[in-house]
């Protein structure tokens, strides 16, 4: 009985792989058991990528942090984000309280620094001052504005277009985001995304082959499901007049 189930599962996977291979140009269909020897490496890469994870993430210091090239910096960033989330979410601090406390501590440090020379009978020393460059705020505003305009442009292009499938995908994605937002607040969603950004890439880089094989098989099954829905629902809806 177990051998029968194993053979049935292998036949299903073979069918999935053959269907995917037939739809890929310049590729031949293969059996699942021969996939490692005959299927090119490019097909097994997640979403058909050809670059390394480090290059996809930018290839700079940010990619090094996300991939834990320097464990001290990566752990410090993740610890700081966790401490911030704990302060605002668990301890119920707000941004005004934290800002006021930080300003008070800074003023005390500068006060003690400026009066230390008189107390210790030393020559007066210049107190360091914190000045943030204006270019920093300009770059942040430009970056945020560009991303918002790009997102709004994409939403409007989808709404004004006649691609019903793409519109349904966007609507379902927004609905899923709304459901997730009802479960937790915006700060928690940001923290979850931050933790995923600092854990999923390094885990994928470590277990790349296993993840690629799993996603490769899952995409094949989803494509078969989508073809059935497309043939029975979407193709008929496209013929009608909206």
Automatic annotation (TrEMBL):
The chain crosses the membrane at residues 95-116, 136-155, 167-194. It is a multi-pass membrane protein. It is found in: Endoplasmic reticulum membrane. Keywords: Endoplasmic reticulum, Membrane, Transmembrane, Transmembrane helix. One of its GO terms (biological process) is response to bacterium. The keyword Transmembrane applies. The keyword Transmembrane applies. GO terms for cellular component: endoplasmic reticulum membrane. InterPro entries: Reticulon, Reticulon-like. Residues 62-242 form the Reticulon domain. This is Reticulon-like protein. The gene is LOC103722883.
